Amino acid sequence: MKNFTYYQPTSLHGVLKVLDEAGGKAEILAGGTDLLDRMKEYVAQPEKVISLVGFSGPFKEISAIAGHPPTVTIGAGVKLVNIAESELLRPYPALTTAAAQIAGPQIRNMGTLGGSLCQRNRCWYFRDEHVQCLLKGGRRCFAHDGENQYHAIFTQGHPCVIVHPSTLAPPLMVLGATCEIRSHKGQRQIPIEQLFQAPVKDGQREHTLAPNELLVSVTVAPKIPPGAIFRNASYEVKQKETSDWPIVQASVAYYTEAKRHVAQGVRIALGHVAPTPLLSPGAAKVLEGQEVNEKTASAAAEAAVEGARPLSQNAYKVQQLKVAVRRAILLASGAKPYWEG
Amino acid sequence: MAEGWPKKRRLLGTKIRRIDGPDKSTGRAKYSYDINRPGMLYGAILRCPHAHAKITRLDTAAAKKVPGFKALAIVLPPKDWVVVKADETGKTLELKSVPSKKQADKAEKRTVTVGPGVTILRGNKPVTLADLKADDVVQVEVEQDVIGRELFYAGDEILAVAADTEEHAKDALRAIQIEYQVLEHVVDPAEVLAKPGLRTTPLPNLSPGKEFTKGDPAAGFKAAEAVVEASYGVGVISHQCLETHGLVAEWDADGGLTVWASTQATVATAAALAGRFGVPPGKVKCITHYMGGGFGSKFGPDVQGFLAADLARRTGKAVKIMLDREEEVIAAGNRPSAYGKVKIGGKKDGTITAYVIDCYGTPGYTGGNTVNLNFLPYVYQDAIENFTRLHTVAFTNAGGARAMRAPGHPQNCILTEFAIDDLAAKLEIDPVIIRRKNLPPNNPKANKIEWAGRRNDIYNEQIDIALKLSGWKEKWHPPGKGKSGVIKHGIGMALHTWGGNAAGGTTPNECFVFIAKDGSVTAESSTQDLGTAQRTVTAIVVAEILGLEPTDIIVKIGESTFGFSTGSGGSTTCPTQAPAALLAAQQARNDLFRKVAPKVGADPKDLAIEVGKVVDTKTKKEWSWKEFCAKLGMDEAQGKGEWNLAISNEPGNENISSGQVGGVQTAEVLVDTETGLIRLQHIVAVQDCGLVVNKLACESQVAGGVIMGINYALFEENIIDKTTGRQVNADMEFYKLGGLKDMPKITVHMQDMPERGVIGIGEPPTISTAAAIGNAVFNALGVRVPILPLTPKRVLDALAKGGL
Description:
The complex is a heterodimer.
Chain A: E1 5-7, H1 12-22, E2 26-29, H2 35-40, E3 48-51, E4 65-68, E5 71-75, H3 80-84, H4 93-100, H5 105-110, H6 113-118, H7 169-174, E6 178-183, E7 186-191, E8 213-220, E9 229-237, E10 248-256, E11 264-271, E12 278-279, H8 281-287, H9 294-304, H10 316-333
Parallel strand pairs in A: 1-3, 2-3
Antiparallel strand pairs in A: 4-5, 5-8, 6-7, 6-8, 9-10, 10-11, 11-12
Helix pairs in contact in A: 8-9, 9-10
Chain B: H1 21-26, E1 41-47, E2 53-59, H2 61-64, E3 69-74, E4 79-87, E5 92-97, E6 109-113, E7 118-122, E8 125-127, E9 137-142, E10 150-151, E11 157-163, H3 166-175, E12 177-182, H4 189-194, E13 206-207, E14 212-214, H5 217-223, E15 226-234, E16 237-238, E17 246-251, E18 257-261, H6 266-277, E19 284-287, H7 302-315, E20 319-322, H8 325-331, E21 334-335, E22 338-346, E23 352-361, E24 387-394, H9 409-427, H10 431-437, H11 451-470, H12 472-475, E25 487-498, E26 509-515, E27 521-524, H13 534-546, E28 553-556, H14 573-600, E29 607-610, E30 613-616, E31 622-624, H15 625-630, E32 637-643, H16 645-648, E33 661-672, E34 678-688, H17 695-714, E35 745-751, H18 769-781, E36 787-788, H19 792-801
Parallel strand pairs in B: 1-20, 15-36, 18-19, 23-24, 27-28, 34-35
Antiparallel strand pairs in B: 1-11, 2-10, 2-12, 3-11, 4-5, 4-9, 5-6, 7-8, 7-9, 13-24, 14-24, 15-22, 16-21, 17-18, 17-20, 22-23, 25-33, 26-27, 26-32, 29-30, 30-31, 33-34
Helix pairs in contact in B: 9-10, 9-18, 13-14, 17-18
């Protein structure tokens, strides 16, 4: 990798200060599972690397899971394994099961929430130093007519057809999460949907943070009326059960009255199918006010893939996405998984 | 006549743990990667980023200024020249080619201006003009000679640098200024077939095969009750050795070379280096105490081996070059693809009346001989009366193929066994009927002990065992006619065959056994253990003969100076080395008896070994092993064993080692018809292998083969982008390899046939797994997924397309 200056500030304040001074020429190092790879491949060549490790233990602002369900705040530095195993997050299997399925134990023990949300995409053209794609100042997206079996199926209006790689984003979106973002100059909160953008050129990221900003924490706070039962689930299609990326992913959340299984406040999000994680209001609307069963789940699934424009090699992902949405809804409802043979 | 294997076997055929298991699992075992020499430098290789290009400019000046830079060597091997005149002031060197008898009158002349980018070597040491005098033989490397060199794939090696750290070596590489003329490339073999005139590879891209016909296929199809026409195929995969290719090379003061190489051929690697650098073979030593997998891709020093040794001679330091994962995938060999159009006809009684195939595969830019689609129809060809095969090699701009665990066989198996199940479906019969009906017949002229004389019986017995262990009778159903629902169940079968004889070649493999006066026993051989437990095999055999335990034997293997041995290819190592160890141990025992008998007043003929002791069968006197060996005094007992195919074929030796095996595997799968995902349930592998030396290692070997076959069926594929000509998945992220959770229950059944002697089984158990899985998926869906690996995309595409 290219030489760089390494900073290991002793406080979050220190991190933000160095980040501010770096003027966009720094990368944040948390678990390193993405950044170190990109640096070794010369896809990232930052002048400065700022560590979040701290000198005397992790910064408390980013390293805790705290709160009282339904409101729980997760520090951006929390490891994936700790999300998967959190007691406080137990009401949110959409999130914990997603965290538990990411890659393998080595990655889950190093990777963080902030890393999952702010990592760069896995497009194999983008990751190849020798390919000048749109995101690296080139003039074309090689995936459009190339090897695109794992790329986006919602492609309309997207010159670059990466899929957003975060498996935690869709569950957080359906759980109504907000992000706390800080910089040396201040702080702001945004709904998690606003954290993501579809990059189209060099210098743009898959997130909307300014170069001097840091994602500090994410707070889940689903709106649940008193007495209602909150239900949520995620479903992924992965070719391998060990260390693999989802081909498609769906997360679902809704609440019901105690007696009737009619879905209300439905939120459905789709992962690994577009340059950003996608909320699907269309699918949510179809399920809203409906009793949840295979039929209504299938109708919502059909609505979820509306507008999909698959590429030359990935029409199969449209089919898989439908299945993932249907199965996520049924899992959330507590129905016996019909697909387990 | 040789004494042969003991009739009563105490250790042979039992389950014995690897004697080096603790060393490997604790990290005490040192692999080539772990070798670090004093002052060692790190090498790194510059590779062509384009799939096909010519070098137009090279400037290495900036690279040589990178901190820690030590040396640079281009891939083109420097030639030997004779010095005509070395002009120190004018910096010129006049050379003429080394005279050869044939072309004495055509001496080539060259004048080189010495400066940066020119290296002169004499006796493998860098020299200056001042060191030279007329008639010296030197090697002269001129970096600018690379201009105009054609490169044939994205990854083709150009030059290497050595630096004090790995990071500095990479920095130096990146400081090299190089320009290319980018040429037309082809990475899709189908495109080669479509454009027969292409020339983007060293040989013409299209290399048409010879058609071979037996009998009268047209008449065969006329006689058929059903005929199926279909296309099947499987992509290119990489060896993906866990330990990448590479080595550490170090020259000593006397001009000798030692390499610690990850190789499956210590002797051949040393010999190749000796030849390349003009060193007597006795002064080159290749050490491979442990290595992390080769699968047919590690038979020599390779480009990185020559470069490391070259950089080491220039710098006078040890140089390490181990490939990184990307280099391992693109540049260290592959298994060629195979695609075929098949027409098969048959009858309800199972007879295959005709089989015709037109097929092709790509080995990349070189390695056409590994395409090996010439065993078709596989396994059954002696029984099938009418067939035609035509196979074509399509060279493409990708890394070159190398032998890979049963070269050609898995592909031949797929192209045959898929057709059999599709034919059975059309005939509405259980495909096992076809398999049994077309098994190769026993050769009545052959010895009944040998494969040829009993192969039909062995296969039938193996099918019986496989049917029973897999629950075939209860589980098989006509294709697509299993339980209804989203998840479909299926079961499939495939057969394979392999050689596994002792190694050929004129020089036999050697093994030496030494018994010391303290009773310690050392077994020595240059052979290598490429993961097959060869070290343990040697220990077991020697311990069996000397009445000791395997852990008592000091086994020294993996050094080219320990006598002669051949590379571990073709599953020949165990059937060569086990007999060599047997003979060496028996000879050492006899030598021990001969030397000690007079001292204990016994006749050597009356002495015998029992567990831990030597007994006089006549006087019933006995001595503990140590007590007896102590009587060697200043002496030592020695034995040498030699074995190869020729010795194995001598009359009377057929019980010591032989060859040819068969195997039957079944696969049971669940297929999710909504997502296209396949979940394996159970694989049964029935394998014959002659005399089992170590049942535990044998079973592991088979299970490992099955796991490799599973990955071939479901996950692995080199994906190369057509536009850039670059492999997009040269990693372990999108080049998928199954993990523990992806593996099913694997039931291994070894057929112990001690009367056939030792036969190698490194390769056979990986052959039929993929075909069996493909057939199980067909059985589940009633629809053929014709191309492997069986990705969810291909499964869903096949389901969308519908039936046959």
